[in-house]
Specification:
The chain is mainly α. Helices cover about 75% and strands about 5% of the residues. Strands 1-2 form a two-stranded antiparallel ribbon. A hairpin with a 3-residue loop joins strand 1 and strand 2. The chain is globular, with a radius of gyration of 20 Å. The relative contact order is 0.18. The mean pLDDT is about 85.
């Protein structure tokens, strides 16, 4: 399919400056450029893990859950406690996922199930719940900064990488986690009967119920999976970032941007949106720290202006 002149002009307008910058940065300091590239991709992987759960809940099920960031924080704190008592990082991952999934299951079953289609009401209720959860976590864990240690098999750098020389083994592992979760979600939604039921329930809830399927159970399990991914990301983020009040708001905002840029309900779109956001943040901090925050909003405004449904979004 041939591109129109408008599409070609848009690609040149966006890609041209990026290409010029990349050539200049590679000539000026190739190690800084490549390390920043890896930092951006690994940060994007964390954003994708958290935002993929938000995509399931908000983009696919059309449930407005602005307590998603609080579930991220809850999973991180639970994972930190479990890791501290057992020394098992894998167990901490499972505990963080389970705690957030249980919280999401209760949220959907007790509250949001009775507000289906009431977007404004869901927004206000989940904002209030996010404040309550954040304050409870602040009361329990205080405002102290917590940070988990990476497992022994991921501690230390990987050496002898061309040009880069050495890079964190744990940060590189985030790429593996992101890819694995992305492939799993694509398979679940596109290739399984459960995914077909989820998509059918979103399109025509009444018809799915009439076919004898428990729609509430399908939606509850999907919501729990989306919330669990937030908790899973919280445990991962507790190693690379930190657990501190305010991180819930940051990750919620990142998830919103990823879903808007990538397209609602699209897992590949969430991956693209996360990559764009992660790279924009890291390159901005590395090369233009004064204006780094601006880049994110320029991307968001550009997508809303020229592609309101998102890069991979489709018309309803």
């Amino acid at each position: 399919m041939r591109m129109s002149r408008a599409q070609l002009a848009a690609w040149l307008l966006v890609g041209g400056p990026i290409l010029v910058f990349s050539v200049w940065a590679l000539v000026d300091n190739p190690r800084l450029y490549l390390v920043t590239l890896l930092n951006g991709l690994t940060l994007a992987s964390l954003y994708f893990i958290v935002a993929s759960g938000f995509t399931l809940v908000f983009g696919l099920m059309r449930n407005v859950n602005l307590a998603h960031g609080s579930l991220y924080l809850l999973g991180g704190y639970v994972g930190y406690v479990v890791a501290g008592h057992t020394g098992w990082w894998i167990l901490a991952l499972a505990a963080g996922f389970a705690a957030a999934a249980l919280g999401g299951l209760l949220l959907q079953g007790l509250i949001l199930r009775h507000m289906q289609g009431q977007d404004l009401r869901q927004t206000m209720v989940t904002i209030g719940l996010s404040i309550v959860i954040a304050d409870i976590l602040l009361w329990i864990f205080t405002g102290q900064v917590y940070q988990m240690e990476a497992p022994e098999w991921l501690q230390g750098p990987i050496r002898d990488i061309p040009l880069i020389r050495a890079y964190s083994a744990y940060r590189l592992s985030l790429l593996g986690f992101g890819i694995a979760i992305g492939v799993f979600l694509w398979w679940l939604l596109a290739k399984t009967r459960v995914g077909a039921m989820i998509r059918a329930g979103v399109d025509d809830r009444g018809m799915l119920a009439a076919s004898g399927i428990n729609v509430n159970l399908v939606f509850a399990v999907t919501f729990a999976l989306g919330a669990g991914l937030a908790g899973f990301g919280g445990v991962i983020g507790a190693v690379e970032l930190s657990m501190v009040p305010g991180e819930d708001t940051r990750l919620l905002l990142a998830s919103l941007i990823v879903v808007i840029v990538g397209g609602m309900g699209s897992v590949p779109g969430a991956a693209i949106g996360a990559a764009i956001l992660g790279l924009a943040e890291t390159y901005g901090l590395a090369y233009a720290p004064t204006y780094s925050v601006v880049f994110t909003f320029v991307i968001l405004i550009g997508v809303l202006a020229f592609r309101p449904r998102g890069i991979m979004g489709r018309a309803a």
